[in-house]
Amino acid sequence: MKISDTALPEVKRITLDIHHDARGFFCERFSAEKFTVLGIHENFVQDNFSHSAAGVIRGLHFQYAPMMGKLVGCTRGRILDVAVDVRPSSPNFGKHVSAELSGENGELLWIPAGFAHGFCVLGDEPADVFYKVNATYAARSEGGIRYDDPTIGIAWPIAKPIISDRDRAMPSLVQAKPDLARWFA
Fold first, then answer.
1. Mean pLDDT value of segment 87-95
2. Residues contacting residue 144 through CB under 8 Å, at least 6 positions apart
3. How are beta strands 115-122 and 57-63 bridged, if at all?
4. Which of 19, 55, 73, 159 has the greatest number of beta carbons closer than 10 A?
5. 43 DSSP assignment
6. Helix, strand or coil for residue 14?
7. If you write DSSP's letter for every residue of 147-170 in order, what string do you get?
8. pTM of the predicted model as reported, rounded to 2 decimal places
9. Are the C-beta atoms of residues 42 and 35 closer than 8 Å to each other?
10. DSSP helix, strand, coil percent of the chain (3-state; round to 5)
11. CB atoms within 10 A of CB 178
12. pLDDT band at 116 (very low <50, low <70, confident <90, very high)
């Protein structure tokens, strides 16, 4: 496994070692020992799985109590995975990074607490997204930012995305800033 920086220093890209043969491939998606060596010292407490049709955009979501970080990978299909810094005191507030994750490229994205997360399905096939989190889900303290907020400027590569009503109703970054200042102080 290798770890590399992104344009947002806290968000990390992890490249897995993939072993191919005539049957297909094998890889370790997580090893507490190896992740500790890479500098990710998290106690992951829950695994989540999402299956999304082609054209879906999910997000941008975060959890603030308890704070939640996510280790995201795609096990089938392809996604554009996005992390947005939503910590108002950060010099990178409102900035984002993205990475293409797929069932075959061996890439994961570590998105720590204080970042909103979202993704879109690339191509014509569905995508399966598997992610580990370092806090138990708490619906009462889940929040989000509009996926198409122009102040963030994510270039989603989908002309007619499929979006949930909940995600369409999320506030803009500017509208959410007073709450973000309380939650991520």
1. 97
2. 59, 60, 61, 62, 116, 166, 167, 170, 171
3. antiparallel
4. 73
5. -
6. strand
7. TT-TTT----S-SS-B--HHHHTP
8. 0.93
9. yes
10. 15, 40, 45
11. 10
12. very high
Q: Which amino acid is located at 72 in the chain?
A: V
Q: Which residue has the tokens 């970054």?
A: 173
Residue in 61, 64, 96, 117 annotated catalytic: 61
Q: What does 41-73 look like in DSSP terms, one character per residue?
A: -----EEEEEEE-TTBEEEEEEEBTTB--EEEE
DSSP 8-state class, residue 139? G
64 is catalytic: no
∠ Cα 115 14 8 (to 5°): 35
Q: State the pLDDT at residue 50.
A: 96
Q: What is the DSSP string of 118-135?
A: EEEEESSS-EEEEEEESS
Rounded Cα–Cα distance for residues 25 and 36 (Å)? 24
What span, in angstroms and rounded, lies between the C-alpha atoms of 119 and 73?
Answer: 11
Please give the single-letter amino acid code of residue 113. A
Beta bridge partners of 97: 83
Q: Is the pLDDT of residue 19 over 90?
A: no
Instruction: Give yes or no: 61 in active site.
Output: yes
Which of 110, 105, 116 lies closest to 131 in space, CA to CA?
A: 110
> Can you give the pLDDT at residue 35?
81
Residue matched to tokens 């590569």 = 157
Determine the pLDDT at residue 78: 97
Structure tokens that stand for 63 in this block: 């959890």
Alpha helices (H) along the chain? 32-38, 165-168, 173-183
Q: Which of 96, 117, 131, 147 is catalytic?
A: 131
